[in-house]
Amino acid sequence: MITLTEKDDEDDEIIKVAQLSVEDALKELNTEQAGLTIDEVHTLQQTYGKNVFAKAKQEPLWKKFIANFTSLMAILLWVAGIIAFCANLVQLGIAIWAVNIINGIFSFWQEFQADKATEALANMLPSYTRVVRNGKEEKILAKDLVPGDIVKLEEGDDIPADIRVIAATSAQVDQSSLTGEVNPVHKDAHRIENVEKKNHADLNNMIFSGTNMMKGNVTGAVVKTGMNTDFGKIAELTQNVKQQKSPLEKELDTLTKQISILAISIGIIFFLVATFFVHYPLVKAFVFALGMIVAFIPEGLEPTVTLSLAGAVQRMAKKHALIKRLSSVETLGSTSVICSDKTGTLTKNEMTVKELWTLEKSYHVSGEGYAVRGHIKEGPTHIFAKDNDTLKEVLLGGVFADNARIQKPDKQHPRYQILGDPTEACLEVVARKGKIDVEAEVEKTPRVKELPFDSSRKMMTVIQSSDGTHRFNTYTKGAPNCVVDKCTSYLCDGKIQPITQEIKDKIMRANDGYAKDGLRVLAVAGRNLDQKIMDNLDLATIDTVERDLTFLRVNRYDGSAKSRSL
Predict the structure, then answer these.
(1) Topology with regard to the membrane (predicted)?
(2) Residues 53, 224: Cα–Cα separation, whole Å
(3) Is 149 a catalytic residue?
(4) Quick one: CA torsion of 37, 218, 423, 344, rounded to 10 degrees?
(5) Which pairing describes strands 150-154 and 185-187: parallel, antiparallel, or unpaired?
(6) Residue 149 belongs to a domain with what CATH number?
(7) Over the stretch 325-337, which tens digit does the pLDDT of each residue have?
């Protein structure tokens, strides 16, 4: 947990802005709701630098090189070479030293290449965040954030800096990386009066770098970036931790000590026997003993281990896995389970709606990713929303309950970029494939209230202002079993009909079939709220809104796998 020292307490900007109102906090940070201008961003980047953690001081290359010649086994071989020379075994001494030198150079080269590859890989895995600059929302690299930037965060987003909350909806944050507490922490925009404890984690209007949005959404102003953040202070502490030896290295050190003791002991015994029992001359007995010591030293052990590990590294490299240290391969060989993040690692982090399932019929959706290339099909026939009122209502339900937006490719971003959750972004894509004018529909019936998703309800709901052209003014999306439980009717053949247990079972059978195939499934439902609630949105709560829903559809999602993944 991060707490302040007396030095920090003298001028702690985080405590200061936490005690200010939203308006005063924005003034203190020299920013506004519309965000910074490009000129301001450039000036601040020159002052504060990139929003990254400073790299730990790297060990000089020459030290890494020398380290490969100073392990206990390597030292034993150096000594063995000296002993061989003393015993007049010049060729053996040269051979032992040559093996040691070649082995050290080979090990250094393998690790040097891995370090370079790791550095290149780190530059290929950027983290993005949503900001408001010049009054426009855009997606930028998190490392380009500066103090004063206005940031928008949603459930599941990693928090890229220390941020003062200026607006929040049912926001909860996982701060376990800072505090160790597993329970989510509620966050809001209210100023905090009379801060007694100087513990940043207790500030409910601050969110911190390295933590994660568990629920709701937040708009905030960046206060600290990079190494100035609380997480940056932790990173600075961890950079001084020394690298520990691997289990294999420890075992080789132990074996080296045992071999050394055994070889020297046998050498002494043979020296004594040759001198006192065989009556060799002293010099001849000494040379004989040295020869015995050298004979007991396994000169081929270290290169054998190195070559075996190097072979494993090469085989892993062919499978696109990078090993930084040769000795780590042995540890990996003892691993029975590897826990890997699927999204963005094994897949492209691009979700695609592949099928729209309704109680009336099932529609296949072609195309992959966020490019609007593909169609909605019923069998071989292309279907468009303008020709099918039920399909239009089904597609609009996803559009209105969507918090993500898609940006077309530009000079800086050659691919389609999403602002928000990948699962939500594809709802817009499938609507466009059905030839729905998303911008016009959203502008015609803007959102007036949202009941954000949370893990207990497993759904979210939006309320749209009604213009009389749509059947519903409220749309809910979430886990099929949770949404269906709230439904009392369903849409079929353009008509709303009462739902029965048999119909619910049919929906859940479809859901279970997709789930068994490892596919992601999402249900969408609608409702027409009473005018009384629409006139007074304070009455629009989870209990009053998320009931008596009309089931619309189930989406079957698929994540595009990378062409090369381990």
Answers:
(1) Multi-pass membrane protein
(2) 12
(3) no
(4) 70
(5) unpaired
(6) 2.70.150.10
(7) 666 776 777 777 7
Match 């920013």 to its residue by tokens.
31
Taking CA atoms, 11 is separated from 15, 161, 230, 234, in Å, by 9, 19, 15, 19
Residue of 463, 465, 502, 462 whose CA lies nearest to 484? 502
> How many Å is the Cα radius of gyration of the chain?
33
Q: For residue 443, count other CB atoms closer than 10 A to its CB.
A: 9
Is residue 137 within 8 A of residue 27, CB to CB? The reply is no
CA nearest neighbour of 486 among 465, 510, 464, 461: 461
Tens of pLDDT, residue by residue over 179-222, are: 777 667 889 999 888 766 567 888 889 999 988 887 788 999 99
Amino acid identity for residue 195 in this structure: V
Q: What does the block give as tokens for 121?
A: 């890989």
Of 9, 162, 188, 341, which one is the catalytic site residue?
341
Beta strands in 92-244 (DSSP E): 128-133, 136-141, 150-154, 162-174, 185-187, 206-207, 212-224
What's the full length of the chain, in residues? 566
Place of tokens 């930084």: 324
Q: How many CA atoms lie within 13 A of 307 on its CB side?
A: 9
Q: What is the CATH number of the domain that holds 451?
A: 3.40.1110.10
Q: How many CA atoms lie within 13 A of 252 on its CB side?
A: 20
Residue 222 CA to residue 241 CA, distance in Å, equals 30
| Domain of 92, in residue numbers | 61-122+244-312
Look at residue 91 and tell me if it is in a domain.
yes
Bridge partners, residue 525, by sequence: 476, 551
Residue with tokens 């393998």: 110
Detail the DSSP E strand segments found in 86-146.
Answer: 128-133, 136-141
pLDDT tens column, 458-507: 899 999 987 666 778 899 999 999 999 999 999 888 889 999 999 999 99
Q: Are residues 354 and 399 in the same domain?
A: yes
The SS3 assignment for 443 reads helix
The token pair that represents 524 in the structure block: 């969408």
Judgement on whether residues 220 and 71 belong to the same structural domain of the protein: no
Report CA 392 to chain centroid distance, whole Å.
Answer: 36
Q: Are residues 483 and 411 in the same domain?
A: yes
Residue-level pLDDT at 94: 87
In degrees and rounded to multiples of 5, residue 281 shows phi and psi of -60, 155
Exposed e or buried b per residue across 314-331, where buried means at least 16 C-beta atoms within 10 angstroms of its C-beta: eeeeeeeeebebbbbbbe
Quick one: 488 and 548 in the same domain?
yes
Check whether residue 451 and residue 482 sit in a common domain.
yes
Alpha carbons 404 and 217: distance in angstroms, whole number: 12
| pLDDT > 70 in the chain, percent | 85
Asked whether the beta carbons of 24 and 166 are under 8 A apart, the reply is no
Query: Token digits for 425?
Result: 């972004």
Rounded CA-CA distance 272/508 in Å is: 86
